[in-house]
Amino acid sequence: MTTKIGVCNLCEAICGLQITIKGTEVTGIRGNPDDPLSRGHVCPKGVALADVYADPDRLRSPVKKVNGEFVETSWEDAFNIVADSLARIAKAHGRDAIAFYLGNPNAHSLGALTHGPQLLKAVGSKNVYSATSVDQLPQQLIATLMFGHQFLVPIPDIDRTQYFLIFGGNPMASNGSLMTVPDFPQRARDLRARGAKMVVFDPRRTETAAIADEHVPVRPGTDAYLLLAMLHVVFADDLVSAPTWIDDLSPVADLVATFTPERAEQVSGVSAATIRRITHEYAAAEGAAAYGRLGVSVQEFGLVCHWAIHVLNIVTGNLDREGGVMLTKPAIDVVGRGVVGRGGHGRYVSRVRGLPESGRELPVATLTDEIVTPGEGQIKALVTVAGNPVLSTPGGQHLEQALDHLDFQVAIDIYVNETTRHAEVILPPTTALERDHYDLIFHVLAVRNTARFTPAVFPKPVNARHDWEISRELILRLERRLGIKRSLKDRLRISLSPTRMVAGLLRAHGSGVTLAKLRKRPSGIDLGPMTPQLPGRLQTKDKRVRLLPDLIASDVRRLDQLPHASADGLLLIGRRHKQDCNSWMHNSPRLTKGRPRHQLLMHPEDLSARGLRDGQLVRVSSRVGSVSVEVQSSSDMMPGVVSLPHGYGHANTGQTHAAQVAGVSINDLTDPELLDVSGNAALNGVPVEVEAA
Ligand code: SF4
């Protein structure tokens, strides 16, 4: 038996692992106590990496459809079918006829980050979609608009903060998101032990709200009123303490003047007194951090919410302050070195609905429209990479029907899932334990400065391909068929392995951390706590924060003029569990055992008002569809709000375990027409009706 140092790439916490192996078998996985960031933490999903590696359902060779069934084929055959089909469609209909959908695991794979963008560039289609626009798009866009780069995201200094305000985030289940914070449970215990306070705003008493000092329920979709009211209090009660490098605050003060706490109370259900008290407590703390995540991102005013959170931190002097929110200083700075683009907005629009791009991606809520609507530029081919948009995107059932309109579909994926089962070809890459890893993205978003390179635990099997090798092969074959001329720089980029690229980037960054040093210390190198870096690290041309972007000013005015929504009826929100990993991992035996957790959660008063009982099968209906699911009585829910987990609703894809996981897809209820101004889907706060099935 041998113990190897590995890393979990299933979520943003990037926990270090100690992996015991015997031959090609994993015999044990535990947290690595020597890892300077994760400090020995591991969650049930990390241990289940062994299940993914050994999973009999996982594809290990390419497959193609023959008479409606997948059969194994050679890489050569599979690559040729894909390249021939994509080239044929590009020649006949133009490059925009080829669409890409990139799933969340792309951000967790070094090879996907180094070579995936080159594949997109080679095809050159504007029809690029990803999980970003059903998740964190408002956060990336507001970072671009205010700080000059989509990954210049201030991170809560959780290990030193005195007051932690969380809006719509559940790090007890997620271990942080756009805040890489492995071992959140211990960090939260430490926070409270030093006398700091944690307050959670959420329509559900989440796992995080349950351990907080205070949980404040908020009606879904109304957080913008709440946050603008907090800003109103900061200005009205003279709590402003902004740094000298922040320009004139008066336009912001004017903008929030009409958003009083009393107005927010009417809409959000949070009392004006609570809003005033918490704002004063937060402003008075010696180092306070306001943080928002998915709950305030996937709603109609998600961009305004995340702007207001940044401004709250700025005007109270908590940006770039110890214990406030700060910028991580990674060994490879993908922001400062331009490795990842700075982002942008509205440089072109989608064909059918005229929705603006953000960061060179179109909102995935319009993918179905672009497939089914005839005309020049109609999508004819779809390439999904580690994604399952049928379960992950609004109106998923309509997208599944739309897939029949395609001339060709290919997936780079290790599973047959609800989306990839419609593909003609699936190209399965290696998995996490078979490839080297350096985290280009999540070191940039972590609560502490660290660097870590983990070599593959197992060698690549003889007939396997890494994801970057698949991208490279497709680029080369498409290049020949489409006559693509590539620059020398681009040719060099695809010829280097991701590991060699990491070595080069470390050298170029000059932090003193080299690949050789990291290889000697595979548990990682600690580079210390976050330190003040502003305004120098801003990526705006004049090194100033853009305090009030035009897009925000106009959207706040739109909010100001909206009639107050009726508080009658039920609103649907999503939820995540510690044992679930978005739409996958539901065929891991160790994650799917135990009590079912797919039910619709509903407050007991809402149940009795409808004559329903706990455990009963109910029909949940929205404007776009309906599902039948068991209801579970839960006093953790705010009255008037119901919740389904996302990533459920598996079809029988012929896999061993997946068909046994009950549940329905929340995205059969969410509405592709409900969008934030950024183009992000408003998945939370969907009006629904619930009745006996
Ligand atoms: S929290 Fe769990 S899923 Fe996330 S990286 Fe750590 S072990 Fe993996």
| Class by SSE composition | alpha/beta
Strand % is: 15-25%
Major sheet attributes? 7 strands, mixed
Mass-distribution shape:
globular
Average pLDDT, rounded to a whole number, is: 96
Number of strands: 28
Bound molecules: iron/sulfur cluster
What low-confidence regions span 5 or more consecutive residues with pLDDT below 50? Answer: none
**Oligomerization status of the protein chains:** single chain
Number of helical elements: 24
Please state the CA-atom Rg, rounded to the nearest Å.
24 Å
Roughly how many Å apart are the termini?
Answer: 54 Å
Task: State the strand order across the main sheet.
Answer: 5-4-18-17-16-6-7
In helices, the fraction of residues equals 25-40%
Walk me through the structure.
- By secondary structure, this protein is α/β, with parallel strands linked by helices.
- It contains 24 helices and 28 strands.
- The strands form 8 sheets. Strands 5-4-18-17-16-6-7 form a 7-stranded mixed beta sheet, with helices on one face. A 6-stranded mixed beta barrel has the order 23-27-24-26-25-28. The protein has a 4-stranded parallel beta sheet with strand order 11-10-9-12, sandwiched between helices.
- A hairpin with a 4-residue loop joins strand 25 (617-621) and strand 26 (626-633).
- 57% of the residues are buried.
- The model has no long low-confidence stretch (mean pLDDT 96).
Which helices and strands occur, and which strands form pairs?
Elements: E1 2-7, E2 16-22, E3 25-31, H1 44-47, H2 49-54, E4 63-66, E5 69-72, H3 75-93, E6 98-102, H4 110-123, E7 128-130, H5 137-147, E8 155-156, E9 163-167, H6 171-174, H7 184-193, E10 197-201, H8 207-211, E11 214-216, H9 223-236, H10 250-255, H11 261-268, H12 272-284, E12 288-292, H13 294-297, H14 302-315, E13 325-326, E14 345-349, E15 356-358, H15 367-372, E16 381-385, H16 389-392, H17 396-402, E17 408-412, E18 425-427, E19 437-438, E20 450-451, E21 453-454, H18 467-482, H19 488-495, H20 498-509, H21 515-520, E22 525-526, H22 550-561, E23 570-575, H23 589-592, E24 600-602, H24 604-609, E25 617-621, E26 626-633, E27 641-645, E28 686-692
Helix pairs in contact: 3-18, 4-18, 5-14, 9-11, 9-12, 9-14, 11-12
The structure holds iron/sulfur cluster.
